[in-house]
Amino acid sequence: MTIVTAVEDYVRNWGVNEWVAAVSAAIAFFSLILNWNVVSKQTALQAETMKAEIDRDVLAWAHEAIDALSEGVWLARAHTAAANRAMLAEPLAKLSWRLSALADRGRMFFPNLAPDAHGQEKPGAFQGYRPPVLDAVLFGLYQVEQLTPTAPSTEAAMKFMQDCRRLLVSEVQTAIDPRRRQRMLTRLMSGVRKSNSSGFRIAAELSSNMRSRYPDLPIGERGADWLVEMERRLRKAR
Question: Which residues, listed in sequence order, are joined to residue 113 by a DSSP beta bridge?
Fold first, then answer.
């Protein structure tokens, strides 16, 4: 006798109680599957809601940083055209304070990378390598600090501030991924975002640019080895 035959014989001998029990078990099984699907969607929706709250805080910070860098672009342009650059000293000093504060506030959202590999002598939040989004703010700060009344006038400073602002916008957009919300609405589940690693390359180019013009500034080296290592760590973190 095969197993199938044995099962058929067993089922033929079922009474009312056995059939009621089997149907109840089947209903419970399908209810479990249905509930699991509902719970999964609710969990995904809760996760998306939490991410949206975090994104709002990041956007509020980013808006201020974009405004500050835009002001830096304007002041760099004014520095080039001003007959009396001493008049720009106060607004440039205030902008320096804002950019410095924004850089530290940004660390709450964008922690340093590889904290175990660099800067162990520094406080915890400053160990490791800054992500490109914070480089954009700090490089802008360093540039603003160079716009002194006796500094030579140059269009390069204005373009540099513009490049810093563009890097900031690109990195923040990558972090919050505005297209993700549309995917969430259509699928009711969190999509996995593929980060754009080109930000590291742009940050390295900005670092090289500023180091070539202001070699005495405390800007960390971002050479080929750094770029390879940062992109390797990013791929590993995905």
Answer: 129
Q: Which among 166, 161, 107 is positioned nearest to 131, based on CA atoms? A: 107
User: What is the rounded distance in angstroms from the CA atom of residue 95 to the CA atom of residue 182?
Assistant: 37
Show the CA angle centred on residue 170, arms to residues 164 and 171, nearest 5°.
90
Of 57, 31, 37, 58, which Cα lies nearest the Cα of 189?
37
The residue to which tokens 């390359």 are assigned: 201
49 or 214, greater pLDDT: 214
* Joined tokens for residue 43: 């969990």
Let me know if 48 is exposed, middle or buried by CB neighbors in 10 A (0-12, 13-18, 19+).
Answer: buried
Q: How many CB atoms lie within 10 A of CB 159?
A: 13
pTM value is 0.65
- Residue 180 is encoded by which pair of tokens? 């993700």
pLDDT in tens, 206-219: 888 888 888 888 77
The DSSP call for residue 112 is: P
CA–CA gap between residue 104 and residue 61 (Å, rounded): 11
Cβ(66)–Cβ(168) below 8 Å: yes
Cα of 149 vs its chain's centroid, Å: 36
